[in-house]
Design goal:
The complex is a heterodimer of chains A (305) and B (305). Chain A is built from ten helices and no strands. Chain A has 305 residues and is mostly helical. The longest helix of chain A is centred in the middle third of the chain and has 37 residues. Chain B has 305 residues and is an all-alpha fold. Chain B has a domain of 178 residues: MetI-like fold. Helix content of chain B is 78%, strand content 0%. The chains are: A mainly alpha (305), B mainly alpha (305). Chains A and B meet through helix 4, helix 5, helix 8, helix 9 and helix 10 of A and helix 1, helix 5, helix 6, helix 11 and helix 12 of B.
C-alpha cells in the first residue's frame, strides 16, 4: 500500500486560454460524409466495382489483340477461350473488346445524361422555388403535366425522330429527366429560403443569383448528389432498353444493351452471349444502387446520432 | 372532395391533349415517309399520300386528327392493310392488359408482404435476405430477367413453353419477368415506411397500453405504412406499361407493346401516334384514379391542394 502524501501532487494551475480550444481538428461536411461512407461496407463494394469497371472501360479494349469491330467469319460464336476471353459473336467479333467498348458507351451515356439532366433540373428547380409566385406556378404545372406521361414514351419518340446514336440518346434523356430533379430541388429550396442564413445573406446585400447559386443550391447538394447517383443506373437501364428494342446503339458500335440485344437473339444456342453483358449491366446497376443508398445515409444529416 | 376530383380531371384532360399535340407534330417532322421502304412508282406514292391525306398542310391534318380523336377514331394503320388503329388496340390491348394485371397481382401483394416481413425482422437474417433479393430485383433489367427465365425454365428445363400466348402456362414466365422489378420496389418502400412508423409515439403508446402485438401490427403499423405505397401506384403502372414493350418482344406475345415497337421500326405514323396517345392517356387515367384513391385514404392531401 503506497502512502499518498501531499508532495506527490503538483499544482499545475488553470490555463484560461486553452479551455475553449478544440482538441481535434474540425472536419467539414464532406470529410464527415466520406468518413461515414467508408464505414458502409456495402456501399464501398459498389464503389470499388464501379472503379474497376471504369478503369476497364478505358484500358480493357487494349488488353486484347482484337478490335471491337473487326469481323472474322472463320471464328463465329466461339465459346470463351484462351484467345477470345469472352468468346466471339455471330460475326466473329471479339466479345472481350466489345464488352469493354460497350462499357465505355454505356457508362458515358449514363454519366453524361445524369449530369446534364441534373444541371438543368437544379437551375430550373432552384430558380422556380426561390422566385415563387406566378413563374413557379407555371413551371410546376408544366412539370406536373409532362411528368404524368412515362419517360420512355417521350424518349422513344425523340429517338425515332433524331435517329440512333450516342448523342441523340443523351439529348433524349436530358430532355425528359430534368423534371424530377427540378421538383426535388424546388421543394428543398422552398423549405430553406425562410431560414435565417438566407435572411442574413439578403441583409448583407446578396442578389437573387448569388443567393440561389451560392447559398441555397450548395445546401441541397447532398440530396442532389444522391439523386444523381440514382439517375445514372436509370439512364444505363434506358439505354439498354432502347438498344434492346433496336432504336438505341446500333452495331458495329457496341453498348451493353446492344450486346444483350444481339445475345438475346441467339439465346437458345449461345446463351453466354446474353449472360456476359447481362452480368455487367446488372452488376453496374446494383453497384450504383448500393452506392446511392450509402450516399443517402452518409449525406443526410437527419440520420446522425 | 368534388373540387379536388374536378381539378385532377381537368389536369388529366389537358395532359392528354398536350401529349397528343406534341406527338402529332413530332411524328410529322420524322425523316422519311412510311412508303420509302417500298418499291413503288411516284404516282402510286402520290395517290397513297393523298389517300391517307398526308399531302394536306399540317394545321389541316392536325385539326382533322383532333376532331377524329375526340370521336375516338385514330385512323388507319399505314402498314397493316385495311386495319384501323382502333382495331389493333381492340385486338391487342386485352392481351397486354391481361399480362399487366397478372404482373401487378404478383408484384403488389407479394411486395407488401415481403416488406412487412422484413421490417418485423429488422436487422436479422430474414431482413437481409429479403433486401438482397429486393436490391437485385431493382437492379436487374426486366428484359434480362425475361431472357434468363426463358433460357433456364423454358429452353433447358422445359417446364414452361418458350413463347407465345395461348393459355395459362404461357402466361407464367412473362408475368414473373414483368413483375419482379415492381415487386422489389414495393418491398423496399413498404419496409422503409414500416420502419419509420415503428419509431412513432403512438406505437409506443399502443404497446404501453398492452395491445397484443398482432393488433398493433395490423391496426397501427400496416394501415399507416401502406400510404406511401399508394403514391407510387401511378409510376408502377407506367413501369408495367413500358415493361410490356420488351417482355412482349421476348416472349412473342401479340400485345400492344409489340405492335408499338414494330410500328416504330416500320415508321407507321398513325399506329405509333395512336398507340402513344393511348398509352399516355391510359397512364394519365391511372394516375387520376390513384390520386382519387390517395385523396380518399389520406384527407390531408385533398385539403392541402
Amino acid at each position: 500500500m503506497v502512502e499518498v502524501t501531499r508532495d506527490l501532487f503538483e499544482h499545475i494551475g488553470v490555463d484560461e486560454g486553452s479551455q475553449d480550444a478544440i482538441s481535434r481538428p474540425s472536419i467539414t461536411y464532406w470529410q464527415d460524409a466520406w468518413r461515414r461512407l467508408k464505414l458502409n461496407k456495402v456501399a464501398m463494394i459498389g464503389l470499388v466495382l464501379l472503379s474497376i469497371f471504369s478503369c476497364m472501360a478505358i484500358f480493357g479494349p487494349y488488353m486484347t489483340e482484337f478490335t471491337y469491330n473487326a469481323n472474322n467469319l472463320d471464328y463465329t460464336n466461339q465459346l470463351p477461350s484462351k484467345s477470345h476471353w469472352f468468346g466471339t459473336d455471330g460475326l466473329g467479333r471479339d466479345l472481350w473488346a466489345r464488352v469493354w467498348m460497350g462499357a465505355r458507351v454505356s457508362l458515358f451515356i449514363g454519366l453524361a445524361a445524369a449530369v446534364i439532366e441534373t444541371c438543368i433540373g437544379v437551375i430550373i428547380g432552384g430558380l422556380s422555388g426561390y422566385l415563387g409566385g406566378k413563374i413557379d406556378m407555371v413551371i410546376m404545372r408544366f412539370i406536373d403535366i409532362l411528368i404524368s406521361v412515362p419517360d420512355l414514351i417521350f424518349i422513344i419518340l425523340i429517338m425515332v425522330i433524331v435517329g440512333a446514336g450516342i448523342l441523340p440518346i443523351i439529348i433524349a434523356f436530358a430532355l425528359t429527366g430534368w423534371l424530377r430533379m427540378a421538383r426535388l430541388v424546388r421543394g428543398q429550396v422552398l423549405q430553406m429560403k425562410e431560414q435565417e442564413f438566407v435572411l442574413a445573406a439578403k441583409t448583407l446585400g446578396a442578389g437573387t443569383m448569388r443567393l440561389v447559386f451560392r447559398h441555397l443550391i450548395p445546401n441541397t447538394l447532398g440530396v442532389i448528389i444522391v439523386t444523381l447517383t440514382m439517375a445514372v443506373p436509370g439512364a444505363i437501364f434506358y439505354e439498354a432498353f432502347l438498344s434492346f428494342i433496336g432504336i438505341g446503339i446500333k452495331p458495329p458500335l457496341a453498348s451493353w444493351g446492344q450486346l444483350a440485344s444481339s445475345g438475346a437473339k441467339v439465346l437458345q444456342v449461345y446463351p453466354f452471349e446474353l449472360i456476359i453483358p447481362a452480368i455487367f449491366i446488372s452488376l453496374t446497376m446494383l453497384s450504383l444502387n448500393l452506392l446511392g443508398d450509402g450516399l443517402r445515409d452518409a449525406l443526410d444529416p437527419r440520420l446522425r446520432k | 372532395m368534388i373540387k379536388y376530383v374536378i381539378k385532377r380531371l381537368f389536369i388529366s384532360i389537358i395532359t392528354v391533349w398536350l401529349l397528343a399535340t406534341i406527338v402529332f407534330f413530332l411524328i410529322r417532322i420524322l425523316p422519311g415517309d412510311p412508303f420509302s421502304g417500298d418499291k413503288i412508282t411516284p404516282q402510286i406514292k402520290e395517290s397513297m399520300m393523298k389517300y391517307y391525306e398526308l399531302d394536306k398542310p399540317l394545321p389541316v391534318q392536325y385539326a382533322k386528327y383532333m376532331k377524329n380523336l375526340l370521336q375516338g377514331e385514330m385512323g388507319y394503320s399505314l402498314r397493316y392493310k385495311n386495319r384501323t388503329v382502333n382495331q389493333v388496340i381492340a385486338d391487342a390491348f386485352p392481351k397486354s392488359a391481361d399480362l399487366g394485371i397478372r404482373a401487378l397481382l404478383l408484384a403488389i401483394p407479394i411486395g407488401i408482404l415481403l416488406g412487412i416481413f422484413s421490417a418485423l425482422h429488422h436487422n436479422r437474417l430474414w431482413d437481409y435476405l429479403c433486401m438482397i433479393i429486393a436490391v437485385i430485383g431493382v437492379s436487374v433489367p426486366n428484359f434480362i430477367i425475361g431472357g434468363m427465365l426463358q433460357y433456364t425454365l423454358a429452353v433447358k428445363l422445359r417446364i414452361f413453353p418458350v413463347a407465345e400466348w395461348r393459355g395459362f402456362e404461357y402466361t407464367v414466365l412473362p408475368s414473373i419477368a414483368l413483375s419482379l422489378g415492381t415487386l422489389a420496389l414495393v418491398a423496399r418502400l413498404m419496409r422503409a415506411s414500416m420502419l419509420e412508423i415503428t419509431g412513432q409515439d403512438y406505437i409506443i403508446t399502443a404497446e404501453a397500453k398492452g395491445l397484443p402485438m398482432i393488433k398493433i401490427i395490423w391496426k397501427h403499423l400496416i394501415r399507416n405504412a401502406i400510404l406511401p405505397v399508394v403514391t407510387v401506384l401511378g409510376p408502377i403502372v407506367a413501369a408495367v406499361v413500358t415493361g410490356t414493350f420488351v417482355i412482349e418482344q421476348i416472349f412473342a406475345i401479340p400485345g400492344l407493346g409489340r405492335h408499338y415497337v414494330l410500328g416504330i421500326q416500320n415508321l407507321d405514323y398513325t399506329l405509333v401516334l395512336g398507340l402513344t396517345i393511348f398509352f399516355g392517356a391510359f397512364v394519365v387515367f391511372m394516375n387520376f384514379v390513384v390520386d382519387i384513391i390517395y385523396g380518399l385514404v389520406d384527407p390531408r392531401i385533398r385539403v392541402a391542394k
